[in-house]
Amino acid sequence: MVKTPIYMDNNATTRCDPRVVEAMLPFFTEHFGNAASRNHSFGWFAEEAVDTAREQIAALIGASSKEIIFTSGATESNNLAIKGVAAMYKKKGNHLITQVTEHKAVIDPCKRLERDGYQVTFLPVDKYGQVSAQQVAEAMTDQTILVTLMAANNEIGTLQPIKEIGKLCKEKGVLFHTDAVQAAGKVPLDVEKMGIDLLSLSAHKIYGPKGQGALYVRRKNPRVRLDPIIDGGGHERGMRSGTLAVTNIVGLGMACELCRKEMVEEEKRLLHLREKLRKGILGRLDEVSLNGHPTERLPGNLNLSFAYVEGEGLMMGMKDVAVSSGSACTSASLEPSYVLKALGVGDDLAHSSIRFGLGRFNTEEEVDYVIDHVVEAVSKLREMSPLYEMAKEGVDLKSVQWASH
Amino acid sequence: MKVQIKVDSATGRIEDAKFKTFGCGSAIASSSLATEWLKGKTIDEALDIKNTAIVEELSLPPVKVHCSVLAEDAIKAAIRDYQQKQEQRQPQAETANA
After folding, report:
1. What ipTM was predicted for this assembly?
2. Which residues in chain A have their CB less than 8 angstroms from residue B66's CB?
3. Which DSSP helix (H) or strand (E) runs through B80?
4. Which of B20, B24, B73 sits opposite A310 (nearest CB)?
5. For site-directed labelling of A6, which of A51, A80, A358, A388 has its Cα 20 to 30 A away?
């Protein structure tokens, strides 16, 4: 028997790996020192642990350990990268480039900069959610100081052509930041090969603790400088003051090491599970469409729209399976997913979307269980869906006049 | 949201009511409750069903109040449809979309 409820929302957060927890535990009690205490063994031990973590994180992304800055999470990393570059390079230019499907932790800092007088270009994406290096090239001006584009999308899992864009940015001498929260630890990343100058990542998306993030800041070719958001004791090369959360940092380090060591095998395993889930559902239900890119996507991410069924209703129909939806009914704003809308997915299908996020702890048996329950719930809800009935009767739903509420 | 009512022509009472809904849990629950309440009521009584009563019965949060409005609209639409068909002297099971 499969143990329920089943967690299949690993793009939202992940369970801490027991090996990560084990590494963290001594740092709550025995090794509680402040990594900034330079004059006793408690401090030295903490500092050593932090340095080890820096190396583990750097190894995951092909960086050097001195280039890792600790933050409270990827939202802070993104804010620091974007606002920090904007303030530091103000004299050089006032233009930034990003895309419409970024996470709010990138979009909102960009919008704040716009209010403060900067120019921001929000590039549109194609039907798979991708931008091209050419689009970025065309948007660049002599005022452009930063390009910020996510490595992988949180809703649809689409991977961006980071390497081409990084190369372009190098040629043009423009800094390149990537929000790699979803991609880090899941797919190979290399800041040197991909021309990345700044990279945000978060522990809780890779089986580490919540409340811990990191920002990679390039030290040479070029040396990136940031105006700090938080002032204080001058920790982290002056870019982020505040006592280091040693316990969390040890957890992030271990999480990165596990991801690095197991990535090749895990990528294969997740891809197999995802395809099994996709084929299992599509083989038994009609009018299901895939959102995002068919192949250029995170191995664990599957985003499907079930026509004529509303996403939140569907989630309630399979209570012991935890997933997410792009439906307006799940958002506070009552607007369907802006990411799906940017791909040109209609409101109806955005409302009908479900995101399955497979992760390290999902099993083959769980996938079988989820397929059965999705098929059952969708069939039941279609039975009571007036739209499904009308579609089956041959009514063109686009011709219906809808009352607004 | 779709509500269908079956009216007993002798007593003028609603014998049975059915729904079909595309929507979230709250919308489905609102329409389901509406059909439960419709059963046994006269047309006039049915017109008295207010969305606020549905909100109260289901303890809907403010963000889901519009789901109950849809249910009230569907009831009204079904009754309007019934009355129109009555005028055309075709007292049968009636349908309306809201």
Report:
1. 0.80
2. 405
3. helix B65-87
4. B24
5. A388
